[in-house]
Amino acid sequence: MTATIAEKLGSGELQIGDAGRYQKQYIILGETSETAAIALLGDTAPSTFGDLALQSLRVTPMDGSSDKWIGEAEYADAEDVTPAEGSTTFSFNTSGGSMHITQSISTVNSYAPAGKTATDFKGAINATDEGSVDGVDILNPIYRWSEMHVVPDSKVNNAYKGRLFNLTAKTNNAPFQGFAIGECLFEGATGSKRGDGAWEITYNFASSPNVTGKTVGAITGINKLGWEYLWVLYSDVANGGKTAKQPRAVYVEQVYESGNFADLVP
Question: Which long-range contacts (CB under 8 A, 24 or more apart) does 55-64 make?
Answer without folding.
Answer: 55/21, 55/80, 55/81, 55/83, 56/83, 56/84, 56/87, 56/88, 56/89, 57/87, 57/88, 57/89, 57/90, 58/86, 58/87, 58/88, 59/28, 59/34, 62/27
